[in-house]
Design goal:
The structure is a homodimer of 211-residue chains. Chain A is of the alpha+beta class and 211 residues long. The first copy, chain A, contains 7 helices and 11 strands. The relative contact order of chain A is 0.15. The structure holds a DNA duplex (30 and 30 nucleotides).
DNA sequence: CGCGTAGTTGAACTCCATCAATGTCAGTGG
DNA sequence: CCACTGACATTGATGGAGTTCAACTACGCG
């Protein structure tokens, strides 16, 4: 996984967040941009009726909390141990300023949020949950530093459920079916082994291989 | 509806598109940015299996086709008669450059795509289709120049279905139910009258008012 | 006028949500 | 070290919402 950081780590403080800790809160003023250096962060919203939604997962290299709206649309919470740099909105804008004149690098970086939202849309528009789940696994496997086909998988099924807008029970059953089909293997809840990536891709594209 | 355009119309050619016409095509190089001046444009993707998806609707003031990725992720097609300005990627970047140094205006403009993707996620994560449909109607009513509560409504139910990832039949039935509940009225397929906006909002928040 | 596309309606079925019970695991404090 | 606790995961049974299929209608456009 190639990661291209834009903020100068030596200028800004590299901060750490423990699992569950909040980087910024939904509704607060967008006065800082956050660039992730390691770990996984989830974007969470709580609707008025108390409905929890995970609007996206973010990884090393992603910039989140962009000042595109007045206030943050979601809360950012560390899923794993995470490190990040926090930069004031104004100095971030100046960095963007520099980048605009020269190349597109910065522009690509600011697409992390948009990518995340777009991909969730893609995933949620799958017809059956099995292909949803398979597509989801593929989408995050590619973002996690995988030595071989074995990756740390520290996402709770509840997070996955709130992300795909399905019930936790269904997530559990889908994962089980994928295990039974020998597409994946999970020695522990926190370890995911992809046994048959091709099968996973087939299932993701259409859930017809549901023999 | 206040619209704030960034591109100088006198410098660039104001173009027109008829319903169904394509502004840019999924997969093509991102070498132009499109700013809409009037009309409705839909973002469409066709997956490998031929599955059609509407990833977003765009309106006057929105910038689409941003060079955040190498190639366009979706095709942009006019839904209604639409006018727009097409600007080369490089000159667009220079305009962004100017904006970065001064204020956030340009940054807000480039959030149109992101907003669209985010809102689709919000809508799709609704549990029942009635509230989905109600929320969808509210979301576009606010973007259409509504004289009173009567708006031109030229979206086909198929587009709505592909947008919400539900079947066209269900869209039809949902609209009928909303009509029966006297939340809306549709003298023609192309005219939508909001009879009871409050009811619509209630239904959107939770589909419990399903008497 | 006739054709094609979009919308409408009904009936059957499928899949997923829901509820409830049980199991598992990590952390805590006795 | 073990019991206790709480959060998360698992599994089964049930019902219901939405898909699917099919037939029919309405509408626009040549």
């Amino acid at each position: 996984v190639q990661v291209h950081f834009s903020l100068n780590q030596s200028c800004s403080l590299l901060r750490n967040a423990h699992p569950g800790q909040t980087l910024f809160r939904q509704g607060d003023d967008c006065d800082h941009v956050f660039e992730l250096y390691s770990g996984i962060v989830r974007g969470v919203t709580i609707s008025e009726e108390g409905q929890r939604k995970v609007v996206g997962f973010f990884f090393a290299g992603d910039q989140i909390g962009l000042p595109l709206s007045r206030s943050y649309r979601f809360s950012a919470e560390a899923v794993t141990e995470a490190s990040y740099v926090r930069q004031a909105e104004e100095s971030w804008r100046l960095a963007l300023f520099d980048s605009c004149s020269s190349d597109r690098n910065m522009l690509r970086l600011i697409s992390a949020e948009q990518d995340a939202f777009y991909r969730r849309g893609e995933l949620m528009s799958c017809r059956n949950v099995l292909s949803q789940t398979a597509a989801f696994l593929l989408s995050i496997i590619d973002r996690l530093a995988g030595q071989g086909n074995r990756v740390d998988f520290r996402l709770s099924q509840i997070d996955i459920a709130d992300y795909l807008a399905i019930s936790p029970e269904t997530v559990c059953r889908s994962l089980r079916r994928l295990r039974e089909m020998h597409a994946i293997e999970m020695p522990t809840h926190s370890i995911l082994v992809v046994q048959d990536r091709e099968m996973l891709e087939t299932i993701a594209q259409d859930g017809l291989a549901a023999g």
